[in-house]
Design brief:
Beta-Lactamase, alpha+beta, 3 domains, 18 strands, Alpha-Beta Plaits, 15 helices, five-stranded antiparallel beta sheet
Amino acid sequence: MKAEQLQICRPQQEHLPAFALPALFEDLSDGVILAGPDRRIRWVNPALTRIFGYTLQDLLGKETRMLYADEAAFHEQRKIRFNPESSTTSHRYEVSYRRKNGRVFASQTTASPVRNAEGGVDGYLAIIKDMSEQHAYEALLRQLYAISSCSEMSGSGKIRAILRLGLERFGTSTAIVSWIQGSTYTVMLSESDVHEVPPGTAFDLGDTYCVHTLQAEGPLAFHQAGSSRISGHPCYAMFRLETYIGVPHIVGGKRFGTLNFTCLEDRDPFPEADLELIRFFAAWVALELNVQNTINRLAEDARTDPLTGCLTRRAWFEAAKEAAADDGPHALVLLDLDDFKSVNDTLGHPAGDDVLRQCGRLFQAHCRRGDAAGRVGGEEFALLLRGTSLQDGVAAAERLRAEIAGTRFEAGVQTTDMAASFGVARLMPGECVDKAYRNADEALYAAKRNGRNQVSSAVDTSDKGEGGGSGPG
């Protein structure tokens, strides 16, 4: 090919060394084409044949019109640039070309006339940069941004949409976001044209291709697994996945698992750009996971009292309203720490906070599954005991009162005794939570008036002799 190229160059450029064009452009990654004044192709570099898919023999002597996606653009370029009357010495412009396989791509073309010693035009030199990948990246970035900023999509919906883009890009049929702990590979989310793997499905890490990805600590791809070094891998034996591209992904600054795309069919080797691109996809998936973790954490923080770990007042009332929609009865228990102000006044507020923390842990420990403990005031707490009658709620409150009275609470560098007064009321299905709460509150203040450190219940004759579930032990 070089000899032929040299022979083509020589008649038109006697004033240049015969090796000038091949030496300058042969290793350039952009396509380079030399055409005569008639715009017939006289020489191209190897990159141009790769970009367009033609051989050198396909191109030599042919008009450059065969490269254009639109013949009108070919004639337009003649009028603007490729004619002896054009005064411009160099042009940079965008135009669409067509590959041999029919696919159209965008380019950035830099063209210049080749002049002889007398200043006449002996031909035209053009450097063609394939912009299809760059445009694809830009389009992909726009799509990813649109997904991440869509307020109508859930977090998992956004991740699924990102995975769908990856399936299209890599030409695969299944995408999986995994969570890896030790030697356990767990499917967190999948998207597939064939068969979605249910979330929570677990595999031994060694039975997945991703074990190699973790060992590589970066992107890894196989386009013909059955003919590669992993042909004997258990994953190939079980699923016959010929194509795989995967990468570890990081969530919250720590390795979380992997992102991978697979299919049963083999394909051409993945270009180097795809190995970088899958890092890009993993970063967007990790971004959504981080956002969702942050949202969940903020939501949990909004529901949880930071000092005691109990529900906030609002969150506790929401739990009570949910209970009112279920079968009952349920018991509401309000309690107030007796003489708590004296702890703050004599031992200091940090010591008082220590007592509240311990009380929060104690109340949560007495809750069964479905029950709820909330901090509804400074030193006032509320318990929702599901499926519990008024009688059993009183018994549960009495056990808790005795435990508080028998505990020495840490208060800074000292310890202190505490006592609490309790009010108990029942909550029936469909009943107004506010009404039941007021009943419990009235019973609580009755306990305060009657000497404190005791349990009082709201008057409810219909509950006498009632059975029901037992309170927490």
